[in-house]
Amino acid sequence: MCRTIGPANATGGHTGPPLRGGRQIGARLPYARIGRGAGVRAGQGEARNPTTHLNVDGLRAAGAAKEDFPGPVSDCNGGKAEGVLAAHNRDINLFLERRRPHWRRLEALLSRVEGEGLRALPPAEVREFGGLYRRASSDLVTARSRTANAQILEYLNDLVARAYAQVYRTKRRHWRDVWIFLSLDFPRLFRRHFRYILAAFAFFMSGALIAGVAGARDPAAVEQMVPSAFLRMWSREAHVPAANDKTTSAKPQGRALNPSAMIAGSAFYMTHNSQVALTSFVLGITAGIGSIVFMFVNGVIMGAVASHTVREGIAFAFWSFVASHGVIEMTAIFIAGGAGMLMGLSLIAPGKRTRREALVERSRSAVLLAMGCVPMLILAGVIEACISPFPLIPGYAKISLSLLSVAGLALYFGFVGRGPQPGNLDELTRF
Questions:
Q1: Could you tell me the pTM of the whole model?
Q2: HSE on the CB side for 287, CA within 13 Å?
């Protein structure tokens, strides 16, 4: 008489569709059900029960019983059931010994990835992690078809679920990422696209030189380039009081500033400077032409006003006011203008990509450059409202502050982020 080992209705323990192991790391699955009850949706940061992990070295199939079989095993030849069990144990143990080193390696990588994310791994190990994850997914399917051993299936189910959660999790940004961006990624991005920023500076200076020379030769030309109200503000009469007037301040900025006025002024200048930088960036969508024209026009205004103050004899008052905050402010505007040109160039010279693909790819770096300008514009706004117009601070001190700003920016953009620290730049700009 034949007897059956194992439940007659066994189905192999497979309660959901297998993971598609052929996917490359980063390919998104809408939903994957891993093992019994351990569903993990794409974008979740962790598996449903990731806290208890079995030891890979403790897995064994020796001593398998009839419930360890995925389906019924019949013994119709008299006393062969024990032999079937022994062969089953040898087969599973061989499978475990072959796959155990790969699972152990995946566990080691997971211990690093679960703490710091995939960015903690170098590119070669990221690729290795993806391969080990896909292989472990395949091993889980294989184990389900060969055994119903709860210990083995629970271990593989947990391992695959943990890896899945790291591969497909939604990246959560923290304040630490802001610090990494400012201390590593932003100066690196500045150096990577420095030629565009230098181009923005060149267009600005071209307009300033042309307007400055034109204004020196023909004072009437200045009135055509700069609004008359602005010229009156920077006139000699506005800065030098009459000899018999004891109440007029020597400068239009000579009024005492109270804290509320400083706060209001800071807010105004931050908003204004941000609008200028944003305009220079957004105009890059016109194939970069708008950013170029914008930088040139602002240079014309600066050059015309500078020539006007020289003729009025108040050049030092003008430059001591502008220089204290202008170094940081104008650097941020040059960066924003360069970011606009970077974005616009993708429409003119997309390379091997389509224009749409090139625009999307380069816009990532352009947006990051523009975002890096925000703290610079905030700092410039505070200085412009609280230091530049303050009458008790001498002009030489303001010029000295501008020189310190030049040195600080040179050190920051020239040397910060040159170490081996990984940062997030490759992840942020990956297309």
A1: 0.61
A2: 5
